[in-house]
Amino acid sequence: MNNIKSNFKEIDKTLDRINNELIIFQKRIIKFQKIPALFREKLNSYITNFKFHNTEIQLNRKYNKILKKIKKFDNIINQFDYRRLAFDLIEEWEDTKIQIIEELSIIKSFISEICEEKKSEFLHNLEDKLKLLDNRIKLLKTEFDYIKKKKFEIGFDSKLSNLSVNKSENEAFVYITQIRRKLFKLDSEIRELLINNVEFDEIFKNLLRTWVSIKIEIQEYFIDLDRKIKTMRDNLVDYYKQDTDEKVSNIEKFDDITNELRFQLLQGHIQSILTERIEGIKNISDNLESLNSKLEYLIKTNDFSDGRKLIDMNSRQILNFLEETDKQIESIVGKEKFLEDNNVFNLYVRPYIAKFNTSKESLINRLNNFIRKSEDKLHLNQIKYYSKVINPIKLDLLGNYLNLETERLKEITLKFINKNKINAKIMNNKLYFQQIDSDLIDSKEIFFFKNIKTVGNEIYLNCKLTNPCNLEFKDFQISLKVPTYVNIQRKESFPKYLQLNKLKPGKAFKFNYILKVDKEKELKKNLFDPTADEIKLELFYKDQFNNNRKTTKHIDLFIP
What we know:
Strand content: 5-15%
Distance between the termini: 29 Å
Largest sheet: 4 strands, antiparallel
């Protein structure tokens, strides 16, 4: 001992440092052992106050965060310079690590099942809403068929001598206005429900098919009716401009008729349409805020395709809504300026058209702003996401994932780099991320855990593959190679060459071997070969992008 101390004068300090590090390791292992209980307690609070989207996000985020901590500590302890002095501690960590992963997987599966139950419950409620909408559509169709059976017509001759507005026609106008309002209200509600539940758009297909058919039928009827109203209006205008004896003889009757028609047909009809559409614009504008929250959720859950669908669907439906309104107004009022000097029109109609145009321009500006910001947010998070999976990543490959031309992608990426939103650079048509902070476990890695126990001349090797991320891997091929002096007990072991179709997110695959040591052959092993006591496990699989991956695990039979 004195010779050792004389040759290694700092040995006492070194031993103290090693002991301190071992104490720190022990404390951290104890802290890790408490993680599953804390994880369960935290997630139980999410169940008690269940929030559909937030629970899913927090579940994956916290699970991945814990796995990253385990992986980081595992690397630290495996790189410890004095591992052979901490045999028991490392063995304890291996057992603890496997136990933690198993408990976390069980808890995550349990919470995921609850989320699925809640999702099924949510879908059931959504289907009930769709059934209610379907009943309202059928009721609207019945009311519309009643109008068609009455064959409401606006009659007049070239001299307007038979023109009159009777009570039944007034009632028909009221009835038609009600149908138009119900049509607009149903269309708005269906559109809003679809956009807010874009990830479940499949269950809307039957309803939309029925709705579009009935909506077109009713709109075609209204277009024909609006054309007749416009024709009446044009004839009234022409009659008003005449300077004939016939006009003078009918002036008293005409004044009564024009007053009635101007108020009931023009004022009432156009005001009703514009009032509904202005209110619709307000609702759509207010709904853009909730769409931002919806987009945030889809991005956090990496549902980029649904995020893109949300942006496109919302934009398309808003523009269709505005286009339909423009056509409807044009079919009644016409593009030309008429009755410009008429006080009735200026007083009652023109202000509504001006208000609608102002609201329309405001909505278009808000929509353009929403599209620009949403696409920037979507592109930024897509670039970050795929760079965490493949780094560096080719721009043309990334462009395929984002459905963007390479030059357009380069332009967008450079904008993000210049604004310091991503820490990356472009070289040789590849995007290099210099630093990646991620809650996403690298998709190239599968967690591998092993446990070795020796009983006599038999070695029990228990292995487990765990998929720690939110991505599915497939086409696994596992190959085992053992030292020459070791025999695999085939009846009690898994095959030497294994195949596995897929490993779902958060799931594990366990396999084990019983190995028997041939003592005579062991004596003949090459003592100078560092791999003489090594088991080699090769793992081949494909990631979610169909890229081939390979991982090799080297297991020393006599080192845990």
